[in-house]
Write a structure and sequence with these properties.
27% helix, 7 helices, 11 strands, alpha/beta, single chain
């Protein structure tokens, strides 16, 4: 049996969703006018959508094509140009990343990462990414960007966390009618940042949401701090002291029934879902949202959230 929100919570969610959608639309209109009026050179961004988790030849998250297509389109009116490589197309285990050299990366102003697992990056290529950001460039992590490079701890230090488990994945499946997908309520912890200042104080959204590793993996407790799927062992745990949290799951306003037992989400727990940090001279923005293709194609609030994060990381907004 699937559970829905209680009537009071459901009413709150609908009202909040209407308000946030209206505010985000107004905000995007203002941002478009500002971007078109500015005379500064446009920023160049590379998006990586290579899947490394799944059966050989599979193409990863169903949202990857939409992520590439929509960010490319959104950038046209937001001051940045996106280079998309259709990384999802070759399939797991079939990627050829020999082109990805420090020189190739350095022609861009920012890197959007929506890859996961072991995509075949060498140690030199991994170091190039963190050095790219440390030197003053932008890094934007979307959704599954925290599910990779567990063997390269400096990446996790830069990004801020490693994935442990999803919360609501079974409640978002293709067998679940759209109007019955689980809606979680996000608490907006920073109402002034470009990625969140259009949201008010809460944001209801259909998403799987993540729980992140809380400490380095330890053989004495082998079931903790190891990702599922992937069985990647986290070399570090999430800490609020490392990042500035923008969004976290509001467990008092979210129906937690049916959540993954392994995620062990509880009322009153702390579950950040988006944040920013500085890394050397560069900026890092991360959001756990983006599991569903519809999030990219149909959600104007997510568009405002992600575009704001990209623009902030690129230094186009503060």
């Amino acid at each position: 049996m699937r559970h829905s929100l209680k009537p009071s919570a459901h009413a709150f969610t609908l009202l909040a969703l209407l308000f946030v959608t209206f505010a985000a639309g107004a905000w995007m209109t203002t941002r478009t006018v500002q971007a078109q009026a500015g005379g500064a050179a446009r920023k160049r961004v590379l998006i990586f959508t290579y899947p490394g988790v799944g059966a050989p030849g599979s193409h990863g998250h169903a949202s990857l094509p939409a992520a590439e297509q929509q960010t490319l389109e959104w950038g046209k009116s937001a001051g940045f140009d996106v280079t998309a490589l259709q990384g999802y197309e070759p399939g797991v285990g079939k990627q050829d990343l020999t082109f990805f050299t420090p020189a190739y990366l350095n022609q861009f102003d920012g890197l959007i990462m929506m890859a996961n697992g072991d995509i075949g990056l060498t140690a030199v290529q991994k170091k190039a990414i963190v050095d790219f950001v440390r030197g003053g460039k932008a890094f934007i992590g979307i959704h599954c960007a925290t599910v990779m490079m567990y063997d390269f701890p400096e990446y996790g230090e830069m990004l801020g966390a490693y994935y442990f488990n999803s919360i609501f994945t079974p409640l978002l499946g293709s067998d679940v009618p759209v109007n019955q997908r689980r809606i979680g309520v996000l608490k907006v912890e920073d109402t002034k940042h470009p990625a969140t200042r259009m949201l008010g104080t809460t944001w209801p959204v259909a998403e799987e949401f993540y729980v992140f590793a809380s400490a380095p993996w330890n053989e004495k407790t082998p079931e903790l701090n190891i990702s599922q799927p992937g069985s990647f062992k986290a070399p570090m745990g999430f800490s609020r002291e490392r990042v500035h949290v923008l969004l976290s799951l509001d467990t008092e306003r979210t129906n937690l029934e049916g959540a993954s037992p392994r995620a062990a989400v509880r009322k009153g727990g702390d579950y950040p879902q988006s944040w920013w940090r500085n890394w050397g001279k560069g900026r890092v923005f991360y959001t756990s949202l983006g599991h569903l293709a519809e999030t990219f194609t149909n959600d104007s609030v997510f568009k405002a959230h992600l575009t704001g994060g990209i623009r902030w990381a690129l230094g186009l907004e503060n």
